[in-house]
Design goal:
It is a single chain. 39% of the residues lie in helices and 20% in strands. The chain is an alpha/beta fold. It has two domains: 200 residues, 2-Layer Sandwich (Nucleotidyltransferase, domain 5), CATH 3.30.420.40; 190 residues, ATPase, nucleotide binding domain (Nucleotidyltransferase, domain 5), CATH 3.30.420.
């Protein structure tokens, strides 16, 4: 007789008793590839403890990345191409997951669940007077579940948006779980393609936490590097090229005057606001080539990231802190944490806060978002909400994502 599969409720009780292996998959707006984090979670899903077992980044094949960039930047495509990309990206995510498990000598079928953020190719939050808010992440979870042989939670943003939220950022729930402190107020700052922050006051409860996207992180910088090097480089390593340049203040002033930066949260951003069309219009259009232009534009883009983060804190965070509350530190993760110039500018612009990399607190800067989606998938698997309505603007806490079984 074939053994019957265990009902989800029974599986949930088993998972709550002990540790479980969970894998998170993340691909950001930079479209570089797939980050995979294998973690062991223990304790209650409401307040888990994690141990990172393995992490890797698997670059997209060049042709796939170029196709994704074209679609994400709004170039014309077909329903057929989107369908093909959905399955191709799903295969890329699955291969990243399986490869990481094998490197850690763990059978993927031992995974309790895989959390896949997917690859965002469109995201439009709620802006008054604009089209209906919507989002699209591709990377077919059924393909991941089949190839990995494990349950997959994917499509995290849509439930929050169905409840009237921005659908992003979603990492603040995990920031709260991992960085809450009874003595230090914390700003968790992730600088990926887009920069976003989570504010966690001293001794905060979930309803005290808030956060939002502040604007471009590495997106403009990376786009300029690809443009001027004709694709030979994709980022400014350590901020060294930008450090040789000078800020073009008129450009910076004009960009910082855009409505996005003045609009109060909740708010989210992506390539729709700060992608190739933005870079062309604000940084490259009608600009004659001259010696040092590349470095000056990179310095200006880096300063845009730093100043927009500092301005967001000054405008939307410090005035809204509870009476007597204080922030003590900024914990930086994401690719921007490797940019020495950016960190130096943040320290100069935020003299009252200690700016430190997340590594110092046991959160590897490159793995943090993949770890976050492992933890969010674990919450979904146990029927727990994963959004923070004060962050996203949703009407209520929502269980995020869709579960696909192998």
């Amino acid at each position: 007789m074939q053994p019957r599969s265990r009902p989800l409720a029974d599986q949930t009780r088993l998972q709550q008793r002990g540790s479980r292996l969970v894998l998170g998959l993340m691909a950001g707006t930079s479209l570089d590839g797939v980050d995979a984090a294998l973690v062991r979670l223990s304790g209650s899903p409401e307040s888990p403890k994690f141990r990172l077992l393995a992490f890797s980044t698997t670059p997209y094949p060049t042709r796939l990345r170029q196709r994704l960039l074209q679609v994400a930047d709004g170039e014309a495509t077909t329903a057929g191409e989107l369908s093909e990309l959905n399955f191709e990206v799903g295969e890329a995510f699955a291969h990243a997951a399986v490869r990481l498990c094998r490197s850690a000598r763990i059978n993927p079928k031992r995974l309790a669940v895989v959390g896949s953020h997917g690859q965002t190719i469109f995201h439009q939050g709620s802006v008054r007077g604009q089209a209906r808010s919507s989002t699209l992440q591709i990377g077919e979870p059924a393909v991941i579940a089949y190839l990995a042989g494990a349950p997959v939670v994917a499509d995290f943003r849509t439930a929050d948006m169905a409840a009237g939220g921005e659908g992003a950022p979603l990492v603040p729930m995990v920031d709260y779980q991992l960085l809450r402190d009874d003595r230090q107020g914390t700003v968790a700052l992730n600088v990926g393609g887009i920069a976003n922050l989570t504010v966690i006051p001293v001794g905060a409860g979930p309803s005290d936490v808030f956060g939002f996207d502040t604007g471009p992180g590495n997106m403009v910088i990376d786009s300029l590097v690809r443009h001027f090097t004709r694709g030979q480089r994709s980022y400014d390593a350590g901020g060294r090229s930008a450090a040789r340049g000078l800020v073009i203040e008129p450009v910076l002033k004009r960009v910082l005057g855009l409505p996005f930066f003045r609009r109060p949260p909740p708010k989210s951003a992506g390539r729709e606001q700060f992608g190739s069309e933005f870079v062309e219009r604000c940084f490259l259009e009608r600009r004659a080539s001259r010696p040092g232009l590349f470095e000056d534009l990179l310095r200006t883009a880096t300063e845009l990231t730093a100043r927009s983060i500092a301005a967001a804190l000054d405008r939307f965070v410090f005035p809204d802190l509870p009476p007597g509350s204080k922030l003590h530190r900024v914990v930086v993760s994401g690719g921007g944490a490797h940019n020495a110039l950016l960190l130096a500018r943040l320290r100069a612009l935020l003299p009252g806060l200690r700016v430190q990399r997340a590594d110092a607190l046991g959160l590897p800067v490159d793995a943090k978002e993949a770890i976050a989606f492992a933890i969010l998938a674990d919450r979904t698997f146990h029927g727990l909400p994963g959004n923070l309505p004060r962050v996203t603007g949703a009407a209520r806490p929502m269980v995020l994502g869709k579960l696909v079984r192998p």
